[in-house]
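Table S2 (text version). Query chain:
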Amino acid sequence: MTDSSKDKPPMTAGLDLGDKYSYLCLIDQHSGEIMEEGRLRTSPEAFRRRFASEQPMRIAIEAGTHSPWASRVLEECGHEVLVANPRKLRLIYANKRKTDQIDAENLARLARVDPKLLYPLKHRGEEGQAHMALIRSREALVSVRTQLVNHVRGAVKSFGARLPKCPARSFHKRAAEHIPEALWPALGPLLEQIGSLTQRIRDYERQLEMISEEHYPESELLRQVEGIGTLTALTFLLTLEDPYRFAKSRAVGAYLGLVPARDQSGDRDPQRRISKEGDEMLRKLLVGSAHYILGPFGSDSDLRRHGEKIASRGGKNAKKRAAVAVARKLAVLLHRLWISGELYDPLYNIHRRQKQQEEQEEVA
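Corresponding C-alpha cell output:
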C-alpha cells in the first residue's frame, strides 16, 4: 500500500441533494464496491444524525440550492466535502439513464478516482452568503421594476403617446403627467408600485454601503477605479471571497467567463465567443462599468485607451468587443489592487513608458 493511499479516507460517498430527500451512495475506497445505498431527508438535523458519528470520509455533492448549508454541516461533522460543478459533469447531466440513485453513485465514483474530475467549487462562508443575498434581492427588485416600466411605456405607446426618457429611479414621478387619462385606472397603481420598488432598492443600497464600510474596507481599493461603485466592488469581493485562490490575476478574467471559449482539436481551433462561465451578475456589472469607462463621461486611462484601440479596428460588434475586453482587463486590475493594496494610477502604462524613455535618454 502506497503512502498516498494511506492518506485517503476508507469510504467515499456520493450525495445527490434533492429538495425533500437526498440519495446516498457509500463506496469502499479500496475495492470500489457499493457498501450502502439509501435516502435521507434534506435537512441539517437529518444530515447531522447520519454523518456526525461516521468516521471521516470524502463526500461529493453537486452545487445547487442546498449545497452551501449542506457542505458546511458535513464539514462540521469532520468530513472532506467536494462540491462538484454540475456544468462540467457531462457523465451526470447527459446520462440517458438518469436517476437520483445513479447520480449519487457517479458522484461517489468520480470522487474516489480523482476529485479533479468533479471540477470542485468553493462555497462562500455563511456571512458572505447572507451579504450576497442582499445583493441578489436588490437585483431581483431592479428586474421587476424594469419589467413594470417597460409595461407602462408600451401601454402608453398603444394610445399614441410617449413617455419622456428618464432614469428608472425617477420614472414614477416624471411619467405621471404624461399618461393619458383613460389609462390612469390601469397604470396609476403600477406607478405607485414602481415608486415603492425604487424606495426598497434605495434601502438595499444603503444597507450595502454600511456592510461595505463595516465588513469590507478593502472595497475602497477597488472603488479607486472610475466606474466601480459600491455594488460592483462588493459583488467582486464576495464572488471571489479569497483573492489568493488565483495564482495570477490574469486567471480572474477566465474565472468570470470573460475570455473566449476553446474547442481546439488537431489543426482545428475556431475562434469562439466568450465562455460566459462564472457569476453572471458580476460579469454584467463589470461590462456595465466598462461601458461607463468607454462612454462620454469616462476620463482618459489605460483601460479607456485599450478599449478605444479595439473599437477602432471596426467590424461588426466592435464596440461590444471593446467593452468585453475592457471588462476583462478591469477584472484583472481589481484583483491586482486587492492583492497589492496599491494606489491606482489610471495612466500607469503611459507613465511607465515615459519613465523608461527618460532613463534611456539619460544613459545615451
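Notes on Table S2: The CA atoms of residues 173 and 195 lie 8 Å apart. The first strand starts at residue 11 and ends at 16.
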